[in-house]
Amino acid sequence: xxxxxxxxxxxxxxxxxxxxxxxxxxxxxxxxxxxxxxxxxxxxxxxxxxxxxxxxxxxxxxxxxxxxxxxxxxxxxxxxxxxxxxxxxxxxxxxxxxxxxxxxxxxxxxxxxxxxxxxxxxxxxxxxxxxxxxxxxxx
Length: 139
Hints:
The chain is an alpha+beta fold and about 140 residues long. It has three helices and eight strands. The chain has a single domain, classed as Jelly Rolls (Sandwich).
């Protein structure tokens, strides 16, 4: 079993690809076969595997989630109670609940079994910068 924690600095809401950092971890440990678990240690961001070829995909995902779950000061969100940490906090928790905080990826012959256009992304849901910790574990 091998593990490592990555830190990703975000500058606000959006998708941050870190596929190459994960592949570097696999190569540096000379890992061959197993299950890679990628886990984010926060409740207001999430992980997604998404297309990494066309940046419009990331823009559209951001736009969709912003419309689906607007800030708590939007009249449509008047029912929210948890608002002490700013208008983006509770919506960030909702977005994280709709996505995932852990991803399992097969590892075969030292490579992640991802599709041609798939990348691993941290999906930051808060509007201000954060340092996010992501745990990589191969078993």
